[in-house]
């Protein structure tokens, strides 16, 4: 159903009704910003890159063929823009404090983590992941992208995507365990 909604708005924009692009921006702005934030590690740069990604998507909309999900195409633009910017600036990555995880984080079933602390624990653990692993987790669990779609975004083979996602999930679990141990020590 989302695919059909995206196509509807895309066709309207292609037909000259450019105001419909605002629906696309509204739908994807949080995830595009999250990807940019994780790669660039700077809120201002991430906001600028998210905006540039939408501009590039708008200008290139005529090249979107609809063979893949629009979200996959847009995330690929965002990821490529961010990686290009990092290479151009040769930035050193710092830690993030402002990455926003969608509300879906609270719906994950994480036994042992009090419900009211789940989103905070997930965000803290994800902040400790390298940007490539963060992106994989974000796309798979929060954006519900398939392995095939993620492999298109990251330009990894599907089997490599599965392996890296497995390792990222394992690392996230380890980080969550460590965070929970630290939390227990502070409570006691």
Architecture overview:
Helices cover 69% and strands 0% of the residues. The protein has 188 residues and is mainly alpha-helical. The chain folds into 2 domains: 99 residues, RNA polymerase sigma factor, region 2, helix turn helix motif (Rna Polymerase Sigma Factor, Chain: A, Orthogonal Bundle), CATH 1.10.1740.10; 88 residues, Arc Repressor Mutant, subunit A (Orthogonal Bundle), CATH 1.10.10. The protein starts with a helix and ends with a helix. Belongs to the sigma-70 factor family. ECF subfamily. One of its GO terms (molecular function) is sigma factor activity. InterPro entries: RNA_pol_sigma-70-like, RNA_pol_sigma-70_dom, RNA_pol_sigma70_r2, RNA_pol_sigma70_r4_t2, RNA_pol_sigma_r2, RNA_pol_sigma_r3/r4-like, WH-like_DNA-bd_sf. This is RNA polymerase.
């Amino acid at each position: 159903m989302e695919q059909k909604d995206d196509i509807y708005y895309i066709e309207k924009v292609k037909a000259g009704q450019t105001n419909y692009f605002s629906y696309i921006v509204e739908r994807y702005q949080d995830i595009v910003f999250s990807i940019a934030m994780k790669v660039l590690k700077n809120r201002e740069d991430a906001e600028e890159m998210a905006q540039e990604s939408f501009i590039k998507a708008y200008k290139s909309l005529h090249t979107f063929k609809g063979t893949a999900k629009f979200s996959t195409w847009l995330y690929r633009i965002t990821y490529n823009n961010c990686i290009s910017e990092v290479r151009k600036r040769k930035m050193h990555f710092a830690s993030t404090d402002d990455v926003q995880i969608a509300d879906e984080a609270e719906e994950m079933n994480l036994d042992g983590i009090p419900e009211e602390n789940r989103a905070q624990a997930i965000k803290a653990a994800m902040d400790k992941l390298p940007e490539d692993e963060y992106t994989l987790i974000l796309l798979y669990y929060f954006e519900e992208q398939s392995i095939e779609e993620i492999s298109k975004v990251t330009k990894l083979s599907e089997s490599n995507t599965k392996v890296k996602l497995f390792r990222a999930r394992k690392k996230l679990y380890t980080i969550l365990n460590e965070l929970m141990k630290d939390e227990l020590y502070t409570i006691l």
